[in-house]
């Protein structure tokens, strides 16, 4: 079992390229300052499980670049002639908010030059497939919004669209594809959609017992948590059944997972309580339209999503009081409208 010092160093090493060049490189001291906001008796168990989870769900720049490079010769996508396939492919650059698509396209451009000897700028044809590249699909709100506008205004009457991301969450992927198909039908266009990903994380309510997000099996005996849960009337929280085997082993085990869920939930409720008139979608375990929060543990080198638990990214290191008085482990870069959720389809 790792010592406290080893855990602090390990987590700092895992997230070492987080927002590189924008914020100071994470250090053990930084991680220690964050975890000291929790009760002393839970700090080691919390660090232990977080160390395990981030090792599985933190996507460094090298990991992301390698994934997209590997897709260039993915036969299920390209067939037997990758160079000819990509030469005809059309790359969409239509992201309305954020910068992830532009940065991912730049990584793909580098790899395409290496493997096929052509840049993205030389690709494209009237009859070629379309590619929407991004890092991770969470709720699918941003991807769906971008592509719906494209479908209505720019898409040809017949097309094939590939959504290429390193990871997806199953509910968001299902809702996104369903919504895009409906959008195409509404404007009389025949468009097929396929989503490609290295890993898919379960987060559908019907499969909550096998969920691969933070979805508590039990609600802690905490007055603030109880008061928060009493506010939810439309979609009351339903706990998962503990102990089910997961497809993706992103937690060390049930006991460690419950520590992470409990402590981040309690801290998230505390953070939310300090905000004046918080949005309903601002939930302790991450922005979401229902439950205790989205609960994703995925973080990329570029940014931490607002779908992750509030205690991971909320706050201001310089604040001494008020709503932002929380020291973030992964300070989030925000954009205009970054916390606006697309409409959800709750037919699960």
Task: Considering the chains and any ligands shown, give keywords for the structure.
three-stranded parallel beta sheet, alpha/beta, four-stranded parallel beta sheet, 2 domains, 348 residues, Transcription Regulator spoIIAA, disordered C terminus, 9% strand
How would you describe the overall organization of this protein?
The chain folds into two domains: 4-61 and 203-313, no CATH class; 72-201, Transcription Regulator spoIIAA (2-Layer Sandwich), CATH 3.30.750. α8 packs parallel to α9 (170-186). It has 348 residues and is of the alpha/beta class. The two termini are 41 Å apart. The protein has helices at 4-14, 28-35, 43-57, 61-71, 75-78, 82-88, 100-116, 141-153, 170-186, 223-229, 254-273, 310-313; strands spanning 58-59, 90-91, 130-133, 136-137, 158-164, 167-169, 190-196, 199-201, 299-300. It is globular, with a radius of gyration of 21 Å. The chain is built from twelve helices and nine strands. The longest helix is centred in the C-terminal third of the chain and has 20 residues, at 254-273.
